[in-house]
Amino acid sequence: MIRYALTRLALLVVGLLVASVLIFLSLRVLPGDVAQLIAGTEGTPQQVAAIRTQLGLDEPLIAQYLGWIGGVLRGDLGASLITGTSVADELAQKAQVTIPLGMLSLTVAILIAVPFGVLSAMRRGRASGTTLSVVSQGLAAVPVVWAGMMLVVVFAVWLGWLPAQGFPRDGWADPANALRSLILPAVTIGVVEGAMLLRFVRSATLQAVGQDYVRTAAAKGLTRAAALIRHGLPNVGLSVITVLGLQVAGIIVGAVVIEQLFTLPGVGRMLVEDVARRDLPKVQGELLVLTGFVLVVGFAVDLLHRVIDPRQREVSS
Q1: In terms of CB atoms within 10 Å, which end of the chain has fewer, N or C?
Q2: Distance between CA atoms of 242 and 184, rounded to whole angstroms?
């Protein structure tokens, strides 16, 4: 187990290094000149050249990369070219919105997918099971922006139960108000992601129902539902954990769009704004942190699988 964990950790580090190179190079091919943007439309060529020298933009790419990644290894993600503020500090501040949003979205997705996915599988061939399957396929195809707009119209405009946009200026100083502002965005992401996860839960449950150990348990006197819950769902859970790890990436992508739609001051909205302003150090730091988060989740899922499922430990040994 320790050897496997160290191997996966080494792959995680290599993946982060490769991602850092790709992020760094991809941002350098964007059109526009950061120095010209800072100098403004009336900036002279001499002023632009001075700004490029001051920011180190005239150095070779390898020197710029080594300087950046060296700072990252020291815990320094750099400073904004536009405002001069610390990238790490701004990420920590914006994460207070994005992390709760992601956790709420994942909770909504699980609450939708697991019970209704199992119910859809258990009622396969009946009207209720078919209805759940059709609804999940329809919801999975709904664009997250359209879903958010419809929820705003119903719950914010018509009913007036929840705020349509924004986040409290004092943040989580008023937890109830802050939580209310995240409900619609979280439900928007959670419904779409939950519909996609529901289809997988249904498929995994159907596969589990057909296994010999479930049929044997039913033959010994357990009902079909009891046999599935006691012997089938643990194996379904292992598969669901893997998909949940992949869902994290979908939730992050959804957060980028939803934070724009609901005017939430999170990491996703900040990333979009910084790309538009070509604030390269901030964009680099933001993309690297988001990529690292996804890789760490995958690493954790792999270890959790190995801990829960003894068959994998037996194969590796």
Answers
A1: C
A2: 27
- The pTM assigned to this predicted structure is 0.84
* Burial group, residue 17, by CB count within 10 angstroms (0-12, 13-18, 19+): exposed
Does 128 share its domain with 254?
A: yes
Of 27, 52, 57, residue with least CA distance to 39: 52
Buried b (16+ CB within 10 A) or exposed e, 171-206: eeeeeeebeebbbbbbbbbbbbbbbbbbbbbbebbb
**Statement to judge: residues 51 and 118 lie in one domain:** no
- 8 Å CB contact between 258 and 144: yes
- SS3 category, 72: helix
In degrees and rounded to multiples of 5, residue 78 shows phi and psi of 95, -170
The pLDDT tens digits for 134-155 are 888 888 888 888 999 999 999 9
- Is 86 domain-assigned? no
Question: Is position 303 within any domain?
Answer: no
Name the H helices within 141-232.
Answer: 144-151, 175-209, 212-219, 224-227
Burial class (CB in 10 A: 0-12, 13-18, 19+), 149: middle
Q: What are 81-139's pLDDT values in tens digits?
A: 778 889 999 999 999 999 999 999 999 999 999 889 888 888 887 888 888 888 888 88
- Which of 19, 39, 73 delimits the end of a domain? 73
Domain of 246? 98-265
Q: Which two tokens stand for residue 311?
A: 């068959």
| Residue 182: partners with Cβ closer than 8 Å, 6 or more residues away | 97, 100, 101, 104, 167, 264
Q: Is position 92 within any domain?
A: no
42 and 286 Cβ atoms separated by less than 8 Å: no
Query: By the 8 A CB rule, do 85 and 79 touch?
Result: yes
